[in-house]
User: Which sequence fits this backbone?
């Protein structure tokens, strides 16, 4: 368990890490929040084609998953693949914030890479989706 207690009426944010188009769309939908930017930084991060270094990506992910005001982190699957080890560790030890992988504009969604979907399928008895059918 995460150890984070949610209080009734407490404001929580959605964090977003992804390509420019995905993050921009989420910001236009109202996800962006800079009220606590001085303390934690913004609740979004754009990863360009040139990309961030692995250290910067890991730092961004850890910062978002350790913020007390973020309840869900949306991360594009292409970026998630870069920090898969951190996502697996996070989902094995914490429930809040939930880390949800979403498709990006340029790369189709691959259910075989989605950590949460894999756990759901195993819990429902559907088996591990990563095992290829013959």
Assistant:
């Amino acid at each position: 368990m995460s150890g984070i207690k949610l209080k009734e009426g407490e404001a929580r944010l959605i964090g977003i890490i992804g390509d420019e188009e995905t993050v921009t769309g989420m910001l236009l939908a109202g996800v962006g929040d800079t009220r606590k930017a001085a303390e934690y930084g913004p609740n979004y991060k754009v990863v360009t084609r040139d990309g961030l270094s692995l250290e910067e990506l890991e730092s961004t992910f850890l910062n978002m998953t350790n913020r007390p005001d973020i309840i869900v982190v949306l991360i594009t699957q292409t970026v998630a693949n870069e920090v898969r080890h951190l996502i697996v560790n996070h989902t094995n030890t914490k429930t809040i914030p939930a880390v949800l992988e979403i498709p990006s504009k340029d790369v189709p969604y691959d259910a075989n890479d989605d950590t949460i979907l894999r756990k759901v399928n195993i819990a429902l008895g559907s088996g591990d989706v990563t095992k290829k059918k013959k």
About this structure: The chain has six helices and four strands. Residues 54-66 form the longest helix (13 residues). The mean pLDDT is 81. The first strand starts at residue 13 and ends at 18.
